[in-house]
Queue: 2 jobs
Job 1
Amino acid sequence: MLILSFLVQLAGATMLLLFAVRMVRTGIERAFGSSFRRVVTQNRNPLSAALAGLMLAIILQSSAAVALLVAGFSAASAVTFGVGLAVVLGADLGSALLIQVFSFNLDWLVPVLLAIGGGLFVKSENRRLRQFGRIILGIAFILISLRFLRETMDPIRDSSFLPAIADYLVSDFVTAFLVGAFLAFIMHSSVAVILMCVTLVAVDAIPAAAGVSLVLGANLGSALIPVWLTRGMANTARRIPAANLAVRGVGAVLMLIAVNRLGLLPYIGAPDSAQTLINAHILFNSLLLLVTLFFCSRLERPFARLLPLNAPTFEEQSPMYRSTLDDSVLDKPHLAIANLRREVLRMVQLVETMIHPVMDLYQAYDAGRARTAIAQDNFVNTALDDIRRYAASIPSDGLAKSDSKRVRELTEYAIAIEAAGDIVVKRLIPLAKEKHEKGIKFSPSGQSEICRMHEQVEANIELASNLLISDDLESARLLLEEKGEMARLERKSRKRHLKRLSEGVQISFDSSDIHLETVSSLRDFNSYMASAAYPILHRGGQLLETRLIEQDYDDIEIRQR
């Protein structure tokens, strides 16, 4: 009975720890996720890239999450191999430093964090403040879970089976190493595993020697996570996680042998202290970063051979994707609606390729890139015409009322997407061209405000794409909140711009018209993309069919005409 109670309590404490780490990461991604791309891609030398990775790992509470971000940016050619690998190695060190912070006795801080975080999350109407509340609550839950782990170990610390397991792990450090790697991979969080190991050593459940082997194994397991999660991505995206796995794997094995065969453990810390595990973890990642940092770029060649470029797909060879509409299934409403949904999603992806280079055009106008973005609008228009034709061709007598409504909703959203594409072609790109031709520059503050809005728009496009696939009510609520947040950013930017004008900032006078029209255009673009949330919220009973909603759709139809 004691063993069963122990296992249940251990599982509960572990799940709470995993949930808390995820809660913090989710809050940070929702509050600041749109800025991560700029933080990673603006670095061009390994040292600053490593520092950026260190900072992101501390913020996201996960080096694996940073590795996945970098893999995505690498696939889009936004970062080079050397810079990307430096970011990932810096993230590994950042997660090690984070564990040092959580290892301190901060139980006194838990009530304060719960009070502040709960108050912000429950009472605040401001979206960003609510996410800050989520982050603070997550940190409090991490501290609670660690205290729960310590309390779970107390009753069985003097039992017969725990010392037997601990002695076995000390004598067979290879098994301890593999157990640590397995736990980190299964739990998808090396931070959680290492915090568990530190807690176990702190309560004398296992000796520090076994804990160090577990920690080194957890380092290997954390490097396996992004390799596994990127297995379906292009080879260019898989190279950096694979290189990180190779470097960390070799380093972890070498340090494992050095600690257990060469007797280096006393030089790292006291044999009976939990701090020894943290010292070993930080030392390992620091040495790995120092040894590898200035050779990152040289590792690209062998991994480029190991993972060569994928054969170009049809989509990569053609600027226009094939339509997903299939006339042969028009007599099967559920398949026809699925085709419509896929075609609308294709329109969203086309519009995303149009909005993506806009900020680059504002900073350095390129006529070729502008023409490419404008050409995409023709594909969007064609897709809308096809969707209208296809929706009209679905036999109405075979449609249920709910299916008929869904067809209309998808068609209306396609109209909204086409209107969003027109904003890029008819407003944003001409503004970028005018800015270039007149030699106008934004003030640093104005440039930062516009970039922030553009990043938020791109993040919301991804959210809208996911919503089209999932029809998830919570995602719809979040997308509508993002629409309100974008309106707030536009008002805030306008007020700050007017304040700069009142202070006589000349550069703001010169760029005033373009600045105000740009932020207004980005807000309007985002509103069209966010209109996907309305029908889902209405079906979920969380939105009344008021005149306000009807007005949004009326505006779309009026602008289309």
Job 2
Amino acid sequence: MYKAPVDEIAFTLKHVAGLGNALDAGLLGDLGEDLVDAILHEAGRFATDEVAPLAEIGDRQGSRLVDGKVVTPDGWRDLYRNWSAGGWNGLTAPEEFGGQALPHMLNVAALEMWNSGSMAFALCPTLTMGAIEAINSHGSDELKNTYLAKLVSGEWTGTMNLTEPHAGSDLGVLKTRAERRDDGTYRIFGQKIFITWGEHDAADNIVHLVLARLPDAPAGTRGISLFLVPKFLVKPDGSLGARNDLFVHSLEHKLGIHGSPTCTMIYGDGKFGSEKGAIGWLVGEENKGLACMFTMMNNARLAVGMQGVAVAEAATQKAIGYAKERTQGKAPGWTGGGMSPIIEHPDVVRMLLTMKALTQGARAISYACAHAIDMSHRASDGRPHWQERAALLTPIAKSFSTDVGVDVASLGIQVHGGMGFIEETGAARYLRDARIAPIYEGTNGIQAIDLVTRKLTLSNGDQVRGFIAELNEIADQVRHSNLEGFGATANQLDAAITDLGEATDWLLAKVGDGKTTEALAGATPYQRLFGLVLTGCYLAKGGLAPAQDGGAERRIALCRFAAENLLSEVTALKDCVTNGAASLAAAKIILA
């Protein structure tokens, strides 16, 4: 069973990602280390004791559509309500609507633990948090006053409605339409698919944020508007009124996250209400909906990155626990009686250390991204720098962490051997759940496009070059630390950071010359390259940090393993980046 690694999470937040420095500088108001620790421990307790025990039930039963209503797995309705009663939905929400306005770093740390307990369950509040941010940033005062308090409390939940059967990532061709009414409302008509928690029995109302097109809208993405469309209309006194003209048509049958109802939603076919059309309210301005929705999507991208970290952590814990108990053969040097635990076998050790290093690296990257977001809002100066740093790290945190989730969960099955392929052990669920994360909220290929064409070019490349310079400083600190445990880590970091710099300069030159196709041919290898270098550097930063918990030797050993085993891939990835265009040319022959 999963046990939240609260101490490791707290250490990474404070000593690697930047929370400790922000606290010392007084940038987080009256938040202190004692409160941080109390929040993390209670979030960990809830994830360990209440969420994780229901994960298997959720996977086995799934959410079901019964007589037009979605029924969540046994115990999940009460679990959600207990979670809401704990105030978790409002950690970062505005105080004026009942939130606690705490740093984003604490929220993503809590999200990690809840997703490790059950990714399918944690998807519901994840979408609600994004809806809160979008409405608070772009909604009218009337919408804020009507909906935010209930969303912050968790009494109501939120969704994000983008995808249609013919329009996946290409939102410019969506067909859902909106019609103006004289009273200032709109009527929404259309079908949306893959809507996470689009219908369920855990909350009293569901607030859908829906992208749609007005009749006179410009073509493409410039003509998309965002609308708030509640399941139940809200009366002037805040109580629930009539059912809106929308419903769930069916649930998707998925590889994983079975407990999460993934819905096909129908808007405006006349099933409910006195006339056809789901009643909606404009969020932001007409034809500016995609910009409004991106507020929610950027929130979701980091949250999805945390799903990758979370699944990797849970899969690693399960694999280590199994490897300590399972006996098989006799490992080299085994002197005990009978068969040795498989954790004594060198190849199993290699897999487990790879799992731990990738998990902790992805965690640090994601927390550093959250730190940059916090500083972009809270730093007294340098906000443009932190805004760009958050923008640079978001596609890496989303893509690298979700790839890690899949890779680590797959290694977890390998550690289990044949038993990992059997559902009863629970190892397979992690891989099934993790596999969606590199796909939704912008596929990892789309994240690579965004990274190379939009984020590397921030401040004409000065942001990424400055970041690489900071990584060089970490390598220098390792070199001058005189800690024998690091071995040749400094040299290996130097080589990897040099490769990162060369690949970055090559891509910036291609984008600057308008040779976008050549740049994008190597974009995905570059994204992984960047993630691996950050993993090595952040693990080193952890090894250099004060050893208050007595774990310095362990962290230095893991850093050295990563430098000697994972960073060897970086040079090959750099070659993939620079040779990508040639590969595309060959593809015309191979794939013809």
